[in-house]
Amino acid sequence: MRTVDSSGASALPDQGTLNIPLADARAEDLVNHETIAHGRYLARQDKWAELSQQLRKADDARATSPDGTPIADLLAFGARSDVVQAVEHALSDGKALSEYDLLGGISELEDEMHAHDNEPMIALVVALAHIDLAWAWRGTATDATLPPLHRSRCAAHFDRAATILPICRAAAPQSALVAAAGCALLAGQRKTNLRVADEYERLITLDPHNQRHMRAMGTHLLPRWFGSYEELEVQALRTAARTHDIWGAGGYTWVQFDAITLDPEACARLDVEYFLEGLRDILHRRPDQQTVNMLSAYCATTIQSHAGQNEQADQVRVQIHEAANWLIRDHLTELHPLIWAHAANGFNNSVRINSAERFAARGHRHALRAIGDLFRDELGSGKDVTFTPSGLRLSSH
Q1: What is the phi-psi region of residue 394: left when phi exceeds 0, alpha when psi lies from -120 to 50, beta otherwise?
Q2: Which pTM was predicted?
Q3: Chain-centroid distance, C-alpha 248
Q4: Are the CB atoms for 219 and 258 separated by under 8 Å?
Q5: Beta-strand (E) ranges in the chain?
Q6: Across-strand partners of 18?
Q7: What is the pLDDT of residues 176-230, one digit of tens each?
């Protein structure tokens, strides 16, 4: 008899075994990679009209990949990726920065936009490229250490995106992709009078089934960005009310989801009972294993970040962490290692993944450690813990 520890190796011989089916990490990520590659292919082959048509179709359908990423987002990212990566490479190399390296690609994209001036989706790809390039120039430097050239180029790209986006919005007022780009642009503007909540409310109204928009709003309503703790709470409650027919109390949970892991004070102020009610409502409406793994990993792993900084926040974390128990015992049937890997990184989308296989392996280890801890007593007493499609099975030898 044995259990499986965090490295996947056999543990003490007198213990039980932890058995859980593993989802194929490559299959999990395949749709995203293939869709990005398809967008890149269409741009490289100058098939802009076809790209525009596919972007509009995916956007209208609010189609998403298995992890919830809008298909239109992925296509648009692929279409601009060559241009953005060329600039990122030139800036990271820094030896011989030429104006062509920095402006050649985006100039060609601008030419395509003018050649397809009745295609708002092409204009949107250009606006998104400018936002990406602004962040490439911004880099990770602080305001005090950012060189003047970088500061001015960053501002110029954000300004250009801000000029293009209203054209897209006027031509495609019901586009969730355009609305999401408007929210992405906010991060570069940093003006105190911005009504960030209004922009996100508009996006959430257009695409209420996608939890990513609610999570992004919560993050941007933290004091470190554009909001306050009071506004975060108010908007979380408003969102729950506005999306109640879709998510129940889950709208509150989604808005607070990332914010409380980033900010101990936001966590301390959380209405934890309502948050937990939202967790149950989300699961009731989305009982798929993708969602079960995300909520389980969040409660078991992500919520533990920044522990020890605020006593009241720690009490909230303990209650959310305890939810991992019923989530895993009552609902988990298979392990999605990539989700657990992202959870261990705080669901930080900016994390660069050089090897999906290694990243998934890390997630697998985190998951086994968390689940092993949860079943420590059963495993220690020699019971086998087996997850099956029909539920959890505990068996003695």
Answers
A1: beta
A2: 0.91
A3: 21
A4: yes
A5: 18-19, 384-388, 391-395
A6: 385
A7: 999 999 999 987 776 655 688 999 999 999 999 999 999 999 999 999 998 999 9
